[in-house]
Amino acid sequence: MSASREKKNRQDQTGSGWVDPKTAREAKQRKEEKRNNLLYGTIFVIFLLVAAAAIVWKSNIIQRTATAVTIDGEKYTAAEVNYYYQNLYQTFLQNNYSYLSYIGIDTTTSLKDQTVSSMGTMFTGAEEGTTWHDYFLDQALDQMADTQALEAAAEADGYTWTDEMQASLDESMEALSSNAATYGYTEKQYLSMIFGSTMTKSVYEEQTKRSILVSSYITDYQNSLTYTEDELEEAYEADRNSYDLVSAQYVRVSGAAATTDDEGNEIEVTEEMSAEAMATAKEIADQIYADWQAGGDLQELADASEGSATYTDTDSATYASSTLNDWLFDDAREAGDSAVLEDESGSAYYVAVFESKSRNDYDTVDVRHILIQPEASELSSDDEGYEDDVAAKKAEALEKAEALLEEWKAGEATEDSFAELAKTNSSDGSASEGGLYTEVYKGQMVAEFEDWCFDPARQAGDTGVVETTYGAHVMYFVGYDTPYWQVQVRNNLRTDAVNQWYEEKTGELTVEQGSGISYVG
Fold it and tell me: 190 and 333 share a domain?
């Protein structure tokens, strides 16, 4: 993930009554995740930095040729299954590296000897108690079945291999060769360490080719979906709560009964205790509301409650069904509306004040940039002079960025010439596209990058150098693009359409495991 595209985390609103909107679309996201895994997870392999010496397993003809799985009559070996299995596993490790101990995965132990915990279930939806090996194997077989079905659908639609796809395949194979050489291994040794001893270069190349074809097939269909402004407006009106933002302030008064006594011992909470706690919360909420109506400051009143109430002020609340949200997002709300709300399921009362509701009408932006990353310090963070060395390398990156900008200004000084400069100098993933990012929205980029893009004075053709924690960015402002609410609506319409198309193309294929399945994982 490029440095400039790192998304900012959502604020933690635990206990505030706000529910993460993604829970309302859980089923939809699982479908999209399945498609995205196929789209992005198998094109380029995540090559692990191997610290230990390599052990090259001797080839075994039975392991290499035994049928591991048959999908609607098409047979696959363990190596072919491992291609998908290991890609899914390594991608999962990368995406959840900081949480592996909570999830319950030990990378030094066989996945066949580890079972999915309740926390692991929360991350994956896998059944608690199943082995992690079975989880990733099931995912791999599903992905293989979908790949086979989509490959057949692409052929039926006359979708053929292109020069662009070939370039992607060549890039992937070159990456394999380069990484193997970097760590001092042959390609066979390197593939064996990642995919197991049954993997060969020809199998890896063939499965990568299939993945690129299918990925391109999906992407081309997705990009073919267009919508008029009237269609976007109609879709917005049909589901406004998915796009609207509410500005409001509220106080939450907890009505949960204490679970420990004065000495800290755990006690059993009775219905009478819960009812009493809720009654007390209502009294506090009613008093805060009355004092606010009399001219008091809501935040000060909450702070004066000695910990029983918490205050929140927001101008961008999103919707997910709850007592508070249902009231705030009601179409009947008008500026200044206020109420005391009972949240029985959440054991709380709210003093809520509605201010306004809107949608993201601001224009997104198109921008090009060249990222110059500082060289990594050869010193340890504990070494004397480390901070000075890091500062010096950041200064060098900034100096290089400023020099590149001056080089561009001294030349043709056009958008095209900037794009060419980005292709050869940027360390960002967008370099191949001339550093171009389109329809950038607020909150997508790191703060300094975003502040430059959304400066009210920004005009097409503007340039500059912006420093972030990731390096120095040479900026070129292309111009304003589609309003963000339209981008949101269009993306949701596309997601729904692609998910439906995907299911129609893949369907249900018969998957049968063979003796070679024992060599997977």
Answer: no
In whole angstroms, what is the distance from residue 495 CA to residue 501 CA?
Answer: 10
Residue 224 CA to residue 494 CA, distance in Å, equals 10
Mean pLDDT, 10 residues at a time, over the chain (521 residues)? Answer: 36 37 46 55 38 39 86 96 96 91 91 92 91 96 97 97 96 95 94 92 97 97 97 97 97 93 86 94 97 97 90 96 97 97 96 97 98 94 92 96 97 97 94 95 96 97 96 98 98 97 93 94 87
Cα torsion 391, 397, 403, 408 to 10°: value is -150
Query: How far apart are the C-alpha atoms of 82 and 48, rounded to whole Å?
Result: 16
- 67/209 same-domain check: yes
Structure tokens at 32: 């999209």
Are 177 and 186 spatial neighbours (Cβ–Cβ below 8 Å)?
no
DSSP conformation letters of 294-345: TT--HHHHHHTTTTSEEEEEEEEE---SSHHHHHHT-TT--TT-EEEEEETT
Q: Which domain holds residue 56?
A: 41-224
Residue closest to 377 by CA, chosen among 359, 367, 391: 391
6, 446 contact by CB (below 8 A): yes
The sheet carrying 471-483 orders its strands as 436-440, 363-372, 471-483, 463-468
